[in-house]
Design brief:
homotetramer, 329 residues, 14 helices, alpha/beta, two-stranded antiparallel ribbon
């Protein structure tokens, strides 16, 4: 009973915030961090942490905020909590940057419902990955996107994330999807730059269509190739590093880009491999934010926060990075 | 708004049905069909079809009913519809056989909530597969099950379904889970009989622990090896075939078993490969039920029902099976 | 230069042994151990070990011998050594049981050449898995088998081993292959009993076609279903255990089968998991044979024999099995 | 018998060519085409085609030649034919560019033997991918490379090709391998640019260590990031396109790079997808070379050349590329 009611008042207030949403640039250029979801426990937001995190990220000069993605642990969160997060984030951001809200779900109806809620709460756009349970064909995925786009009022970003969803939006599926009027961009987290190059080719005559990459290690090269920016996890804690790298790449300052790329590779090598598990990236991110005093490092099931040994290692790596002058332009 | 409200009255009545649940035999032997979810459209149950389907299945002499599994398209359904299905099914079955309700979700909190609802509605047990998004380790999966079992009042079946969840309950994880007092059984849909043999070994001293297989092609041999039965899709339309096969295997009538196994292989070869896609099993099942006049063949996104060509092929195959005297003991 | 010449005299003598080959029963029933290749170093046979191993295996009452399979490390051996092994084995077996020789290679020409050598050396049949480098389609695999069967004089067994070759002989490919006059059987090491059941269905009208399984854990059930026996690694050291299990299954003595199956599961659980790597089965096998004083435990690259810790664990497990009366009928 | 003897005289002459090998630049920069192996049938070189192909490629200004790679169908060729190819190629190239010869094999001994032969024939370096049958661990792969480097006199390039070998050289394995004195470079065909960035980081203090990419779509960006060039299949028919792209990237002419990259993407999209199978790249390459009158398009088993329909499509695409001015700088 408690589960069902405690998030309700937040939900009800969603509609009132509508006016505050930021406009969506076409294309959307820059760094749009995939925000972690600060949690106190498995069904309670860390509300103060959320506020600090948003201010920390926005202070870094980012160009948008993506909530309820993989980094945001969206699939692990209850629906009421997801709605509370959307509502609070939109209110806290208050139109300073576009807010992109993940609506990915295995259930079409729940995705549509979440998109409707996000629109009412003032989100700028919705982001959708393939439904991640059944082995849908590319033709079925294209049909899925056509049906979904028709039911969703927000601009829609596709989210290619095969490591977690096991399904990819194939190039031909994207070709069909970009014909839909409210499909405005794509985030590619596959790490497959041949695929990304094909998307660049595909969108040559669509200068308004946004192409973003997920892995921060690929942010620089993707911009050199014609991409518009990235949705990069490290921007939760070092937003300015990725913002500077984006600027260096966009202005084709290759020497500066190489310098910043080395910093990005150091961050990635040192901070995301602690604990050696498939989830060490996510656990590392929350651990860093906790060490920096920004928010709690609780992770929803099936994950658990790092233990003391891993936390000490993250602290040590953070200190060594600082000694190396990272981040720093 | 309609989405949010139309299932509500059903939900409210759930509690009243509690008394009608069937007792759970330990172990649970026999055939427990994984019921398809009859749909009129993506968020509307085919209520008459549901009633016909339940009566059709129970008339075949099955030993339980499993709803909201993969065959039931659970991940594709909205939460209100899932709740409506649980409630209506429990009421229609009315204690004649145990009802097992799937509670699998990527969100722990939603799984617990669904289990609570199922308990109130009169379900006999809950069934849980690994959370199917994040790459959890076996140690995390074992911890997940421990936390879940503590929050769920119903007896719990594990559901191993790596083709769709991408995560397996490893043998060591099962070893830890069977120590939990309300973990009472496991359904294995991996098709990996070495794994199943290991589970048989593992449970040698736990005669009350239920081991069931998913693929109907493996029902006979699994019982010969010490398994207790199956959760077999074909029992949606030919329940008596699988019930007879179960009996032949249990009574070690190997000649009769071989005869029935041939019929099962014919059903599988002819009916589940139409259309040649990864989803042809699910589409075939619903198409057969529609041809038999039992329920609608609508499938929730990302799938769509068979077109006329595939439907005609299914009709033809059904007729040829009938001409071969299948099903028939 | 040494590499090229040291095996030559053996090769030259191959032809003389032709007369000694055993006839091939159709179907070939029973246990046909996939023999390990005893090595002194990476390119030298352990000749005395080979003789002891063959006599140890044959004394267990097996029904054939399979050399140059995965368990025989064939892909890791030089061609001259492979030829020496074929020649010596045929001479040592001397027609007491059929000798099946692996000819699998990524190169068609080398497979044909090895088959020709095996025929001259007196082997009874050749065994071929899919060429394990390029992603051939099923249609290409079927064409491959047709071309190969035309070039090979020996009876041919197909070898399905997807874990190592990454390619499977699909059911339709097998359907085409069994039409070829010298394709006489198939060994399935996939562990997928649905696939095996389909093969059983496929061969219902071909009582002369041999169906064997690889994994020893599945030997019993495969025979109950209509299979003819197994190519089981454990028969390198406990040949009589698998021979007895084969007899129990063939005579449908289900109680005795259950008893022996428990022993097989104990052997598998205790002896093949030491060291926890993907190669622990192969390393374990050779370690056991070394402990039993039968042959050297040297493994060709990329593998290495167990170190002292793993060897001690294998010794301990062997002793515990003996204390449990395993193997023993 | 014919198989065994017909390549012999070529083999015997290998040693005499030793003096003609080109020196190996450290690092090796530029485009080093992975040459297809022109065949008349499954065990006969297209000798005239080979000569025309080599001259065609060298006329394009390439910086080396890689034979017996995946594109060269090495695993599908007999050993005598592989040796004949090495010998003829070294003689025809005659020191004009470095010749890199693939020595990958599942058998360590055969790899060493091929490396010895290549050295005698005048090859400049040897190239080795992981042994592609057994599931070796990273530690075993590192030990494998250490043993191999000790036995091989030629400079050694590692070849990362997980799509075909199923095993990758992990970053830590490469870290160990680059300590070996004759390990001089790595070709990465994984398409995983995060991995490639990690290698760039790893080799920051090893300016003599060569890093090359396989996929031609990634040639430009890899050079911008610090890579040295590519081993790109398209350079078999349009060598100058990839040479020009290499130059544009190396001189950081980003506008010209973008223009050439578009041409590369057109080539890739139009020519490598004909026939839609996993092998269409390889079949397409040989078909193009046949259309251009350079060499025969016979493919060794398990593949077959394109049929008339696919060949006509390739002709059409080639013509359309020409009409678009591709290739052209």
């Amino acid at each position: 009973m408690t589960l069902l009611s405690k998030h309700v008042d937040v939900a009800v207030t969603a509609k009132a915030c509508h006016a505050s949403g930021a406009a969506l640039p076409r294309p959307l250029r820059g760094v749009i961090p995939p925000m972690v979801t600060p949690l106190r426990d498995r069904d309670t937001l860390d509300v103060e942490g959320l506020e600090r995190l948003i201010e920390h990220i926005l202070a870094g000069g980012v160009h948008g905020l993506f909530i309820l993605g993989t980094t945001g642990e969206a699939p692990s969160l209850s629906y009421p909590l997801r709605r509370e997060l959307v509502e609070r984030t939109c209110r806290l951001v208050n139109g300073r940057v576009p807010v992109l809200a993940g609506i990915t779900d295995t259930s079409f109806v729940e995705s549509v419902r979440m998109a409707g809620f996000a629109a009412e709460a003032g989100a700028t756009a919705a982001v959708v990955a393939p439904p991640y349970h059944f082995p849908a064909s590319q033709n079925e995925l294209a049909g899925y996107l056509e049906s979904l786009a028709a039911e969703v009022s927000l601009p829609l970003f596709l989210y290619n994330m095969p490591s977690h969803t096991k399904l990819s939006f194939g190039v031909e599926t994207v070709r069909r999807a970009i014909e839909l009027p409210n499909v405005v961009g794509l985030k590619d987290s596959s790490g497959d730059m041949i695929y990304f190059q094909r998307l660049i080719s595909l969108c040559r005559n669509r200068p308004d269509f946004t192409l973003l990459v997920g892995p921060e290690e690929l942010l620089g090269e993707s911009i050199l190739l014609g991409g518009h920016g990235g949705i990069n996890g490290g921007a939760n804690f070092y937003p300015q590093l990725y913002v500077q790298l984006h600027e260096a790449a966009r202005s084709r300052n290759l020497d500066r880009l190489a310098l910043l790329q080395r910093q990005v590779m150091q961050v990635s090598a040192r901070l995301y491999g602690v604990g050696q598990s498939a989830s060490s990236y996510l656990k590392g991110l929350k651990c860093i934010l906790s060490i920096l005093g920004i928010c709690d490092d609780f992770l929803a099931e099936p994950f658990r926060r790092f233990g003391p040994a891993e936390r000490m290692q993250v602290e040590r790596e953070l200190k060594e990075l600082m000694d190396l002058g990272i981040p720093g332009g």
